[in-house]
Write a sequence for this structure.
């Protein structure tokens, strides 16, 4: 009997089987990213505006999440949330069922919180890179704080933050591979299950490596595109096209109206 | 009674009294130039009127409306800001918006104009300052002088009662100063009321209707350009004009 040391064909043929868990990995990534951005923005604003009390809580939170391994954080949420639920059940006489919480919830919470700690620093630096003069100009125009944030600060800091946020997203997508530790069947877990059946562990991890690598390359390209899209070209845009024609017509009519007013 | 009255304006930074119970009258259509040594509160005066600085005391009366410049409520502060518009030394255009959008931004978000209305107003003002041929350019594509002209159009489009120009040509290369001064002259000729801080004394002499000499946060002297530049009798004013080579002190010839 031939002993096949390394079944290289299997590395590729089992990829479709592993990819069945792809939606789970994507779900984890997308939701954790959104949590990361929203909480990260909130943390960044708290730090920038030096909000009393919240600022210290935020600093503690960031320090903890950056100072402990993501694997430890996954286990803390996995065992911690049921404990909290039990406590609520005991004190309030409620009857929440711990087992009704899908495993993926724990992973999303842990990854999202972890992500927010890292993203908050990126977002803070990006927001602080917007020069103060523009903010004064916006205030002088009479824009409200919210309008300035939405229309001046965020659009400009997004451009600055894109490369770093891209990096953090790539970290995250690889970080989701730890979700199998809390019983989530993501790509990594699917690979391990497959290998558990045919004992081709090496092949399974090779397949996983290829999948994650390609995912990362695709993401890198997406972020490069985004960066290019937001960048204001060195060359001034040409004044042409439909919009230019329309504006020229408006300008003509404004001029005509002005001439009429001064004539009377 | 003047159309615009500034009363009892005081502002301190730490131990320094930058504005000291300052009062100033401005008539409608006036071009008031504020001159004086550096650090005497010229910019702070403008910034206080726009509430970029919050003064310790001060009132601003425009026509029938009277405002307390020390108010804290956001909506009151925005009301005051709508009466005045600021043009900055560093232009401060929004870097992610092109020329046209820089001018329409405030009209749409603050004044609530429709896009079409905002564009008409923006084009009118951009045309006035000679920038209607660069509508799609972003600030990074424009020279300092061009950026400043857009900034003037942006301020004017908001239709302020009082236009505040804070050293609008100080950050410009010498050859670009002229185009901005020309734009300001046009704006003044259109009947806008202007409060201007500048070091361009020749421009002040030609274009201002009133000159205010500020020192240590107080109005030391004021009058027509002729009164200030040719018949200065205030010793501090004389000294200042002499320092900037704008006055040949009689002593000089002795």
């Amino acid at each position: 009997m031939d002993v096949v040391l390394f079944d290289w064909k299997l590395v590729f043929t089992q990829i479709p089987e592993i990819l069945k868990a792809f939606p789970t990995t994507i779900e984890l990534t997308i939701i954790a990213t959104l949590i990361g951005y929203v909480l990260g923005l909130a943390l960044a604003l708290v730090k920038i505006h030096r909000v009393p009390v919240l600022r210290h809580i935020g600093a503690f939170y960031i320090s903890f999440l950056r100072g402990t391994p993501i694997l430890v954080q996954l286990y803390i949420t996995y065992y911690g949330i049921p404990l909290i639920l039990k406590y609520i059940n005991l004190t309030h006489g409620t009857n929440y069922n711990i087992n009704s919480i899908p495993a993926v919830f724990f992973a999303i919470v842990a990854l999202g919180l972890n992500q927010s700690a890292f993203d908050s620093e990126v977002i803070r630096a990006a927001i602080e890179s917007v020069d103060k003069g523009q903010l004064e100009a916006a205030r002088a125009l009479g824009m409200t704080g919210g309008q300035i944030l939405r229309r001046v600060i965020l659009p400009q800091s997004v451009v600055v933050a894109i490369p770093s946020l891209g990096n953090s997203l790539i970290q995250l997508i690889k970080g989701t591979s730890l979700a199998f530790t809390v019983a989530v069947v993501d790509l990594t877990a699917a690979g391990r299950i497959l290998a558990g059946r045919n004992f081709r562990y090496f092949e399974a991890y090779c397949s996983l490596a290829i999948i994650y690598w390609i995912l990362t390359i695709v993401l890198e390209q997406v972020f490069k595109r985004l960066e290019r899209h937001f960048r204001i070209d060195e060359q001034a845009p040409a004044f042409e096209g439909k919009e230019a024609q329309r504006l020229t017509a408006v300008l003509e009519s404004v001029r005509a109206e002005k001439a009429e007013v001064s004539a009377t | 009674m003047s159309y615009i009255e500034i009363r009892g304006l005081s502002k301190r930074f730490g131990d320094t009294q930058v504005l000291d119970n300052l009062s100033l009258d401005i008539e409608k259509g006036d071009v008031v130039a504020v001159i004086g040594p550096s650090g005497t509160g010229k910019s702070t005066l403008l910034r206080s009127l726009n509430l970029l600085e919050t003064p310790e005391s001060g009132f601003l009366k425009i026509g029938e409306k009277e405002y307390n410049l020390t108010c804290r409520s956001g909506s009151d502060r925005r009301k005051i800001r709508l009466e005045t518009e600021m043009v900055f030394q560093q232009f401060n255009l929004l870097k992610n918006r092109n020329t046209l959008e820089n001018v329409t931004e405030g009209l749409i978000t603050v004044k609530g104009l429709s896009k079409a209305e905002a564009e008409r107003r923006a084009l009118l003002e951009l045309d006035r300052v000679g920038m209607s041929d660069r509508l799609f350019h972003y600030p990074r594509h424009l020279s300092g002088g061009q950026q400043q002209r857009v900034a003037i159009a942006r301020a004017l489009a908001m239709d302020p009662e009082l236009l505040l120009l804070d050293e609008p040509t100080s950050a410009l290369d010498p050859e670009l100063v002229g185009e901005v001064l020309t734009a300001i002259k046009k704006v003044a000729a259109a009947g806008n009321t202007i409060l201007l801080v500048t070091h361009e004394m020749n421009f002040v002499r030609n274009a201002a209707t009133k000159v205010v000499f500020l020192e240590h946060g107080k109005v030391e002297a004021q009058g027509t350009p002729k009164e200030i530049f040719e018949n200065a009798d205030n010793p501090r004013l004389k000294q200042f004009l002499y320092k900037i080579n704008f006055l040949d002190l009689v002593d000089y010839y002795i």
Residues 4-253 of chain B form a domain with the Rossmann fold fold (CATH 3.40.50.300).
